[in-house]
Amino acid sequence: MGARVAKQLALQQDTELVVASDDRRASCRVASFRQTGGPEDDRIAIGLQVAQRLTDLPDRISAIELTVPGTPGEIQGYIANLQKRIPEAEVRPIRQFTEGEARIYNRISGLLTATVAIVLLLTGLCVMAAMTNVAMERKMDVGLMKAIGGSMRRVLRLFLVEAALLGLAGGVIGAAAGIFLSIGLGKAVFGVAARPRLIVYPVAVALTVIVAILSAFPLRRLAGTRPASVFRGEA
Fold first, then answer.
1. Which of 13, 40, 154, 168 sits at a 20 to 30 Å CA gap from 27?
2. What are the angstrom distances between the C-alpha of 5 and each of 27, 39, 42, 71?
3. Cα-trace Rg, the chain
4. Distance between CA atoms of 63 and 65, rounded to whole angstroms?
């Protein structure tokens, strides 16, 4: 039942309704209500065979309504594909649904993009703070390495590799946890499990590694470490 026609007829769930056309009648019960904000709110949807019998048009179909999941772009692609396959049919979307879904999708997409940017920024700051602490704690090790002939470039490369490995481990664990959490939250909130895209996993891991490497900037402080000063306890 459309929302407006149900309100006009004061119909409730499971109310018995008799539909008549000329001398033909059919009895049915209200199963659910629909509200789209369009002409569908003034319509009553019944079974195909009942409609054919009431209109005395056996084996005839004038319209088919489909529910297609996906983003607005995917739905438009589906519509274009149907128009190519059935050129004699008029294929059109319910504008209230598609436009509403497009607005919601764009807002959620923008919110998630901003959230990802903030998380990356906070992650970078946390890694920089950790690397600053590492630079202060590892001065003795750096001094020893330089004293036995290690170049500063090689020492910094060693620390950068360590930061990259930590970023890789964190990215792998975090991305896996995020995928499982998205599936669980999808079931809990929307009743449908999310379908994660496989490309997201390597992209998330790569971003984590890049942030870890770029945030290792405080390690440059180790370049000024002097072995003699470190061993004398002056650094």
1. 40
2. 17, 10, 5, 30
3. 32
4. 7
Question: Which two tokens mark 209?
Answer: 């590694």
- Beta-bridge mates of residue 25: 20
The 3-class secondary structure across the chain, one letter per residue, is: CEHHHHHHHCCCCCCEEEEEECCEEEEEECCCCECCCCHHHHCCCCCHHHHHHHHCCCCCCCCCCCCCCCCHHHHHHHHHHHHHHCCCCCCCCCHHHHHHHHHHHHHHHHHHHHHHHHHHHHHHHHHHHHHHHHHHHCHHHHHHHHHCCCCHHHHHHHHHHHHHHHHHHHHHHHHHHHHHHHHHHHHHHCCCCCCCCCCHHHHHHHHHHHHHHHCCHHHHHHHHCCHHHHHCCCC
Q: Does 96 score more than 60 pLDDT?
A: no
**60: which 2 tokens?**
């005839």
Contact criterion met (CB below 8 Å) for 132 and 218:
yes
Sign of the dihedral through C-alpha 34, 35, 40, 44: positive
Structure-block tokens of residue 7:
């309100």
